[in-house]
Amino acid sequence: MSELRYDGRVAIVTGAGHGLGRQHALELASRGAKVVVNDLGGDVSGAGASAGPAQEVVEEIVKNGGEAVANGGNVATEEGAASIVQSAVDAFGKVDIVINNAGILRDKSFKNISVAEWDSVLAVHLRGSFLVSLAAWPILREQGYGRIVNTSSPSGLFGNFGQANYSSAKMGLVGLTKTLAIEGAKNNIKVNAIAPIAATRMTEELFPADLLAKLGVEKVTPLVAYLAHEEVADSGQTFTVGGGHISKIFVAEGPGFTKAGDLSVEDVRDNWAAISTTDPYAVHANIGEQTMAFLSALQ
Description:
It is a single chain. By secondary structure, the chain is an alpha/beta fold. About 40% of the residues lie in helices and about 15% in strands. It is built from eleven helices and eight strands. The chain has an eight-stranded mixed beta sheet with strand order 3-2-1-4-5-6-7-8, with helices on both faces. Helix 3 (about 80-90) runs parallel beside helix 4 (about 115-145). The radius of gyration is 21 Å and the shape is globular.
């Protein structure tokens, strides 16, 4: 089989100074992509800033024969997001691939979380992915080609104690992914999401050392790179990935219960088993399919 290459493609990777983003940038560059390495250079909580991490990744790419530029823009601001895309245009003339990877953690149980801790996490993960994608969108539409990979999380898909802010942002990215896939279809813009489990600065205290050793970032990047390639056919999908395992995560609807005429509270109670069953389930490609299935159930 032929090697998947990205020659002539320009990729933006946010949060690429460390961990997953760094690995994504290195892999794409090693396969011919020109890369904008974005990182604000703060700590896991988002505090601080430094040009060092992004520049170090750029230097490693260049040393290995690739092309890259560093950008320290803040994805959570309109100006920062615009500067990231402009860096790609200024250095390489276009944008083909956007990998929204930047993130921070400010974990607190819901009873202890502050509004600032809620807002800051959503600002980076969800607003940041929106702003960078929005800045690149006109370019992708005009050229009739684009690949966007968003970074969700199992915490968003399934919930996790102490991560109301993080899980809300990560599930929001699933909805953003699905809608951008629909809107980008006619312009050959494919948008997908990953929900990774990997050994990074964010997870080093969550897993025992022996498990972390199996969860290297290099076992996540191959999926990201494939979703960023011109060959990928899927769009609007979410995949969990880690330790060499990849599987599709999907939203499904069970057969449900329907009653002609008036519906009472007691009807809901008495038919709760039918309402709650998940077998057989249906997976809808968009809201139109779900609505048609819903209306069909009323016939």
